[in-house]
Write a structure and sequence with these properties.
CATH topology of one domain: Heat Shock Protein 90
Mean pLDDT: 79
Shape: rod-shaped
Low-confidence stretches: none
Order of helices and strands: HHHEHEEHHHHEHEEHEEHEE
CATH class of one domain: Alpha Beta
CATH superfamily of one domain: Histidine kinase-like ATPase, C-terminal domain
Number of helices: 11
Largest sheet: 5 strands, mixed
Strand order of the largest sheet: 5-7-8-10-9
Distance between the termini: 19 Å
Radius of gyration: 48 Å
Length: 450
C-alpha cells in the first residue's frame, strides 16, 4: 500500500525550520549590535595610551607610584583596568572574577620566564617592567560582560526568541488551528441534524491532509443527505406500492361481503394481491440486506453455467410472452462471489428485459472475459429508455417516462441488481441499443488463481 507523504508535517517542518533560521539571524544580529555597542569603550581603552602611561609611571616611581596612578586614573565606563603581579594578584587588592582566575593565571600572566632562555611564551596582555626588574601585567576587561554575555545581550536573545516563537505560533494557529476548529464546528452541526453543514472552499482547497479531510467531510455529508433523501423517497414509494394492493384487497373483501361469500374471481384477485405484497416486501428486505458485507458468501462462480441455468428457468416466461432467449458465452469466465446474490441480480435484469420485449423479439444474453473482468450483457428490443434516464433506472422505484410496457414489477429489480454488483466490486450500466432496445452491461472482477 502506497502511503502518501505527510504534507502537513512537511509544512510544519518548514515553519519550524524557518523559525530556527530567523531566530539564528536575529540572535546573531542582536548579539553583534549589542556587543559592538557595549565593547566600544573597552576597545577604546585597550587600544588607547593607558598602558604606556602605566609603564612610564612604573619606570619613574616604581610600584607605589603605579598604585597611586591606578587608583586615581579615570577609566572609561565600559572597561576595568587591572595591574597584576607575577602571582596574578591585582596590585590594589581587587578580586578577579572567579571564572577568569585560571584563564588569567595561565594565559594572561603566564609562568615566569626561565633565566637564560631565549623563549618567551605568548601572553594575551602587555607586560610592563619596573625599575627593580619585576614584571606586571596590564589587563583591560570589559565591564558588565561575563562569560555568559551581558544582561542586554541576554535580554536581546530572549526578545528575539519570543518574537520568533510568537510569529510561528500565529502561523501555526492560522494554518492548522482555525481549519481544525471549523471542521469541529461542522461535525457538531452535522451531528445535531443540520444537514447543510459544509466546510468552505478556503479549507477544501488546501493541498494537505486537512484539505483532504475537509473534502472527505463534504463528500460524506453529501452522501448522508443523499441517503436520507433516498430513504424518504423509498418510504414514500413503498407506501404507495403497499397501499395499492391493500386498496384492491379491501375492494375484493367488500365485494365478497356484499355478495355473501368469496367467489373464484375474488379469491384469485386476493391471492394475486397477496402475492404482490409478498413480492414487494421480499424485494425491500433483499434491497436493505445488500448493504451488509456479512450477507455475502463468497465462492468461485462460473458465469457461463450460472447464465445457462438462469436462461433455462426464464425460458418459460419468455415463451409465454412470445419472445426468445439466446445465450452466447465465451471463455466461461469465473468470478468470486455469492452465487445466490449474483443469480438474483442477473435474474432481475433478465426478467426486466423479457417484460419489455415485444412478441417475436429475442433477448440476447452474453458473457466473456476481457481485461481481467467478466463482461455480462443482457440486450432486448423493447421500447428502450431515454438517454437522460439511463442512470436513474437503477434507482429504487424509478420508472422512466415513455418506456412503455407493463408496470408489473416492484420497482426495485434494477436497484437490487446494482447493489449486488457493487457489493461484488463490480459495476452495472445501461445503454441504448443500436436498432432499438436496451443493453444492460455488468462487469465483475475475474477470479485470481495466481
Amino acid at each position: 500500500m502506497n502511503i502518501p507523504a505527510p504534507r502537513i508535517y512537511a509544512r510544519m517542518a518548514f515553519y519550524v525550520g524557518t523559525a530556527l533560521a530567523a531566530f539564528l539571524a536575529l540572535a546573531v544580529g542582536s548579539v553583534a549590535l549589542l556587543a559592538s555597542a557595549e565593547l566600544a569603550s573597552y576597545v577604546q581603552t585597550r587600544q588607547g595610551p593607558l598602558g604606556q602611561e602605566a609603564a612610564a609611571v612604573l619606570a619613574e616611581g616604581g610600584r607605589p607610584a603605579l598604585e597611586r596612578w591606578l587608583a586615581g586614573t579615570q577609566v572609561p565606563a565600559g572597561a576595568t583596568v587591572f595591574v597584576l603581579d607575577a602571582q596574578s594578584r591585582d596590585i590594589l587588592g581587587r578580586t578577579m572574577p572567579a571564572y577568569l582566575e585560571g584563564f588569567v593565571r595561565n594565559s594572561v600572566v603566564g609562568p615566569p620566564d626561565e633565566p637564560g632562555s631565549n623563549y618567551r611564551p605568548v601572553r594575551l596582555a602587555p607586560q610592563i617592567i619596573g625599575p627593580d626588574g619585576a614584571s606586571y601585567t596590564f589587563l583591560v576587561l570589559p565591564k558588565g560582560i561575563t562569560i555568559w554575555g551581558s544582561p542586554a545581550i541576554t535580554f536581546g536573545l530572549i526578545l528575539a526568541a519570543l518574537l520568533v516563537v510568537g510569529t510561528v505560533a500565529w502561523l501555526v494557529a492560522g494554518a492548522f488551528g482555525r481549519p481544525v476548529g471549523e471542521l469541529q464546528t461542522a461535525v457538531r452541526q452535522l451531528a445535531s441534524g443540520r444537514l447543510e453543514a459544509r466546510l468552505p472552499a478556503g479549507i477544501t482547497g488546501r493541498r494537505d491532509e486537512l484539505g483532504d479531510l475537509a473534502r472527505d467531510f463534504n463528500t460524506m455529508a453529501d452522501q448522508i443527505v443523499g441517503l436520507l433523501e433516498g430513504r424518504q423517497q423509498l418510504m414514500a414509494e413503498l407506501s404507495h406500492e403497499l397501499r395499492s394492493p391493500l386498496a384492491r384487497l379491501q375492494a375484493a373483501v367488500a365485494l365478497a361481503a356484499h355478495r355473501g361469500g368469496l367467489g373464484e374471481t375474488e379469491r384469485g384477485r386476493i391471492e394475486e394481491e397477496l402475492g404482490r405484497l409478498d413480492q414487494v416486501i421480499g424485494d425491500v428486505l433483499r434491497f436493505s440486506r445488500l448493504g451488509s458485507a456479512a450477507e455475502i458468501q463468497r465462492r468461485l462462480v462460473r458465469v457461463g453455467e450460472l447464465l445457462a441455468d438462469l436462461v433455462r428457468v426464464e425460458q418459460i416466461e419468455a415463451t409465454a410472452r412470445g419472445c426468445e432467449l439466446r445465450l452466447d458465452v465465451r471463455d466461461n469466465p469465473t468470478v468470486v462471489g455469492d452465487p445466490a446474490l449474483l443469480r438474483s441480480g442477473l435474474e432481475n435484469i433478465l426478467r426486466n428485459a423479457i417484460r419489455y420485449s415485444p412478441p417475436g423479439a429475442s433477448v440476447e444474453v452474453s458473457a466473456r472475459s476481457e481485461g481481467g473482468m467478466a463482461l455480462i450483457g443482457i440486450a432486448d428490443r423493447g421500447p428502450g429508455v431515454p438517454e437522460a434516464f439511463l442512470q436513474r433506472i437503477f434507482e429504487p422505484y424509478f420508472r422512466a417516462p415513455g418506456s412503455g410496457g407493463p408496470a408489473t414489477g416492484t420497482g426495485l429489480g434494477l436497484a437490487i441488481a446494482r447493489r449486488v454488483f457493487e457489493a461484488h466490486d463490480g459495476t452495472v450500466a445501461a445503454a441504448a441499443r443500436p436498432g432499438g432496445g436496451l443493453l444492460v452491461s455488468a462487469r465483475l472482477p475475474l477470479a485470481d488463481f495466481a
